[in-house]
């Protein structure tokens, strides 16, 4: 056997190295971001910043904004896998992030389940992880520590590149991973950049008699460079003990003080502590007043209570961390205006604290529910600055298509790629391919099937053409599968039972039409292999737009139906008394421009306020005219549905 030359200490695990002895490369994928929602900003402000409206389904984030709020910076909440998200942020943010905190999932399985509350009573039900979240969990722990270490190493390498020269990173872990992560972080950031291992100690039920009860987590603190990193000890002083305060017996206009002898050689009270006040009167030159500072410098073990059932902060996220913990980290290792990021943001604790402390922030999470909870949590902060919600949307899908079926940009393989994509989708849907047709791709039982492209919304024209082809072939049923939908196609009233404009058209052509959503899980190999992919009929809600006064409109929600009721666990279904119990949040964009959803009015349930208004506040337009109103409804599982309504105000 060849002798391996070992030149340094490092953590090695199966799969860390390629067979030829080289280190595994980290995929660095750069994809454009889509802005899917802007929160807390008026359209006028936004248009002024943007300089005109883009007529696309989504705004592509161009990153032209400045680095301060005054220069137009907007905080960012990104929905997606942080590996792709961080890779895509590198172009604009390499060396720009001042502080990163991460709290990656441990091997507990609790990371993705959450508690949701229903209706006015706020009865709690626990929602288990979704297929995609479960998949991330399974991937991470597929083969125990090696796959976890692969996952985390690739993220740490990207995180390092994002850190600014005076930046630092805090990696939160527990007893399971602390040892291995310490070695891995030493390797990625350099042992000379290790600053502290903080023990976050908490009181919780004591339940082990077998060993010492495990009542602390470890937070590893590394700086990007060995020196010159931001650290503000005075911002995180800890309160003095009572005994210390008692020693400062006297008070003057500057505060509490004690009397000390100066270190003058030959003085009878040289360097003495707590000398009698007479000395100050008789020999002021030998005495000085030592004032009580605001606190003592902080140590590396912190006693902070966990979020418990009764805590006001609690947002129903199993792994939620206390704000006090994050506040300490942010105050010490960043300054107002600095950029702070959390790429496993969960319920958004880091972002909420960053918002309150005037830091700029970027947050990312894979879970739909995490994004929803975070958005609500931020909205609840007084004077929360505008922020945007982004994802990699169709670019992620294009990337997936390229990796899975071949590069569409290469013309030679484009046709084959498309063919394979369609064949794959049909197989997933349980349909057979059909040949020789222009707009119909397959057949499932009696129904013909049309599949939408990965990189464009299904259009009204496209559905019409597929319907015409069905009519010509005397086919009576059409199923259209789409990733996204042209506005006006899927709403309003896309419900088959009630009949939408599209369904009416289909009926006239003698065809029964079903519109089905292609779920994100299609891109997840394990979900596909496990047969976990379900195609849902589009969720449906009904809203009434009224005009109570001149130039004024108001939206009323009148019905909501989840077409996939069979997917809701029985214990949840039995607690739902009325249609509005399904709704957790709804928002209105009064002047939708077919690009980003701009939240103009919003209502949502909180733990304290369970009642949800079903009628919006009135909105008055400056000018009469035709407007498109977009209404977005988010259900108690974090799924959203939007519908557009065209109105004319006089
Ligand atoms: C331990 S929780 C974070 C909790 C958070 N510190 C808080 O206070 O709420 C870990 C989070 O990482 C997210 N996550 C796991 N893998 C991810 C990935 N590959 N990309 C983005 N987020 C991921 C999970 O959805 C989960 O919300």
Spell out the key features of this protein.
binds S-adenosylmethionine; 12-stranded mixed beta sheet; single chain; Rossmann fold; globular; alpha/beta; 30 strands; 650 residues
Overall description:
With 650 residues, this protein is an alpha/beta fold. Among the domains are: 93-233 and 299-358, Vaccinia Virus protein VP39 (Rossmann fold, 3-Layer(aba) Sandwich), CATH 3.40.50; 239-291, no CATH class; 396-530, no CATH class. The chain contains 16 helices and 30 strands. The strands form six sheets. Strands 1, 2, 3, 4, 7, 8, 9, 13, 14, 15, 16 and 26 form a twelve-stranded mixed β-sheet that branches. Strands 17-18-19-20-21-22 form a six-stranded mixed β-sheet, with helices on both faces. A hairpin with a 4-residue loop joins strand 29 and strand 30. Helix 2 runs parallel beside helix 4 and helix 8 (323-333) crosses helix 9 (349-356). The radius of gyration is 30 Å and the shape is globular. The termini are far apart. It binds S-adenosylmethionine.
């Amino acid at each position: 056997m060849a002798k391996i030359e070992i030149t340094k200490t490092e953590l090695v695990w199966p799969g860390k190295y390629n067979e030829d002895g080289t280190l595994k490369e980290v995929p660095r994928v750069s994809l454009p971001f889509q802005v899917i929602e802007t929160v807390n900003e008026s359209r006028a402000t936004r248009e002024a910043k943007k300089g005109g409206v883009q007529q696309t389904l989504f705004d592509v984030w161009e990153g032209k904004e400045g680095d301060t709020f005054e220069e137009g910076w907007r905080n960012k909440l990104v929905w997606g896998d942080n590996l792709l998200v961080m890779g895509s942020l590198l172009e604009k943010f390499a060396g720009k992030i001042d502080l990163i905190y991460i709290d990656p999932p441990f091997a507990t399985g609790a990371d993705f389940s959450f508690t949701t509350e229903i209706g006015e009573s706020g009865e709690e039900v626990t929602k288990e992880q979704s297929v995609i979240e479960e998949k991330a969990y399974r991937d991470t722990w597929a083969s125990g520590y090696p796959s976890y270490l692969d996952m985390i190493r690739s993220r740490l390498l990207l995180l390092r590149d994002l850190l600014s020269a005076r930046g630092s990173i805090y990696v939160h872990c527990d007893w399971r991973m602390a040892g291995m992560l310490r070695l891995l972080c030493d390797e990625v950031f350099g042992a000379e950049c290790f600053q502290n291992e903080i023990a976050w100690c908490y009181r919780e039920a004591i339940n082990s008699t077998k060993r010492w009860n495990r009542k602390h987590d470890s937070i590893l603190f590394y700086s990007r460079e060995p020196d010159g990193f931001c650290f503000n000890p005075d911002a995180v002083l800890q309160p003095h003990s009572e005994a210390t305060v008692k020693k400062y017996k006297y008070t003057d206009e500057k505060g509490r003080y004690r009397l000390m002898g100066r270190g003058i050689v030959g003085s009878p009270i040289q360097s003495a502590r707590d000398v009698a006040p007479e000395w100050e009167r008789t020999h002021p030159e030998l005495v000085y007043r030592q004032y009580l500072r605001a606190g003592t410098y902080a140590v590396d073990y912190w006693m902070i209570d966990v979020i418990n059932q009764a805590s006001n902060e609690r947002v129903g996220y199993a792994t939620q961390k206390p704000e006090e913990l994050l506040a300490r980290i942010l105050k010490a290792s960043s300054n107002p205006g600095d950029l702070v990021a959390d790429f496993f943001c969960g319920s958004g604790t880091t972002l909420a604290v960053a918002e309150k402390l005037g830091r700029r922030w970027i947050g990312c999470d894979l879970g739909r529910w995490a994004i929803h909870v975070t958005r609500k949590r931020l909205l609840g902060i007084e004077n929360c600055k505008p922020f945007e919600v982004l994802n990699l949307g169709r670019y992620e899908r294009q990337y997936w298509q390229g990796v899975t079926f071949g590069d569409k940009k290469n013309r030679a393989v484009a046709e084959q790629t498309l063919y394979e994509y369609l064949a794959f989708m049909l197989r997933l849907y349980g349909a057979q391919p059909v040949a020789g047709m222009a707009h119909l791709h397959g057949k499932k039982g009696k129904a013909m099937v049309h599949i939408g492209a990965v990189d464009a919304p299904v259009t009204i024209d496209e559905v019409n053409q597929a319907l015409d082809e069905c009519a010509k072939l005397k086919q009576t049923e059409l199923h259209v599968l789409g990733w996204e939908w042209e506005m006006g196609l899927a709403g309003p009233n896309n419900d088959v039972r009630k009949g939408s404009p599209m369904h009416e058209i289909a009926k006239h052509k003698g065809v029964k039409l079903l519109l089905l959503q292609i779920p994100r899980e299609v891109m997840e190999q394990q979900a596909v292999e496990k047969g976990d992919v379900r195609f849902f009929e589009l969720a449906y809600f009904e809203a009434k737009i009224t005009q109570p006064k001149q130039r004024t409109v108001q939206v009323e929600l009148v019905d909501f139906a989840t077409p996939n009721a069979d997917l809701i666990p029985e214990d949840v279904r039995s607690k739902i008394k009325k249609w509005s119990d399904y709704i957790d949040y709804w928002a209105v964009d009064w002047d939708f421009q077919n690009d980003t959803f701009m939240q103009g009015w919003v209502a949502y349930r909180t733990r304290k306020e369970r009642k949800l208004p079903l009628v919006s506040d009135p909105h008055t337009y400056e000018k009469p005219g035709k407007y498109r109103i977009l209404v977005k409804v988010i259900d108690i599982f974090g799924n959203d549905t939007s519908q557009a309504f065209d109105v004319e105000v006089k």
